[in-house]
Amino acid sequence: MRASKPITVSLGKQQASIDTRVASGAYESASEVVRAALRALDREEQALDAILRAKVQESIDDPRPSLPAEDVFAELQHFHAERVKAHKRGA
Predict the structure, then answer these.
(1) Integer Cα distance of 56 and 35 in angstroms
(2) Is the pTM value of this prediction over 0.90?
(3) Could you tell me the mean pLDDT of each successive run of 10 residues in the chain, 91 residues long?
(4) Euclidean distance between CA atoms 19 and 40, whole angstroms
(5) Residues 18, 32: contact at Cβ < 8 Å?
(6) Is residue 27 within 8 Å of 33, Cβ to Cβ?
(7) Is residue 84 part of a domain?
(8) Is 67 helix (H, G, I), strand (E, B) or coil?
(9) Nearest to 18 by CA among 38, 45, 1
(10) Structural domain contains residue 3
(11) Per the domain annotation, does 45 fall within a domain?
(12) For the stretch 28-38, what's the b/e string if a residue is b when 16 or more beta carbons lie within 10 angstroms of its beta carbon?
């Protein structure tokens, strides 16, 4: 019994990328290219997850006191208002 099942995908412009890789001899088949691409995507997602976890942990470990939400929102509203003013002056 097969460990995987055949699927059909529409690649559009990416088909040329697969064809080039297979034609170069770097890969034996389109399936190999797709498997390699999925492995690379898995590595990228794992790396991003690790970065986000580290940033969250850094924030948790930060000894500075938390900011009140009202202060944060007031600062964001002020920032947004200034950007709107600047955009209107430039338009």
Answers:
(1) 31
(2) no
(3) 84 96 97 96 98 96 93 96 90 60
(4) 18
(5) no
(6) yes
(7) no
(8) coil
(9) 38
(10) no
(11) yes
(12) eeeeebbeeee
Q: Which domain holds residue 24?
A: 14-63
In-domain check, residue 36 = yes
- The alpha carbons of the chain give a radius of gyration, in whole angstroms, of 24
| Total domains in the fold of the chain | 1
Name 19's Cβ contacts closer than 8 Å, sequence gap at least 6: 30
Crossing angle, helix 14-24 and helix 30-61, to 10 degrees? 110
**Can you tell me the distance from the alpha carbon of 12 to that of 91, in angstroms, rounded to the nearest whole number?**
39
In this prediction, residue 1 carries a pLDDT of: 63
Burial of 27 (0-12, 13-18, 19+ CB in 10 A): middle
18 contacts: CB under 8 Å, gap ≥ 6: 11, 30, 33, 34
Total residues belonging to the chain: 91
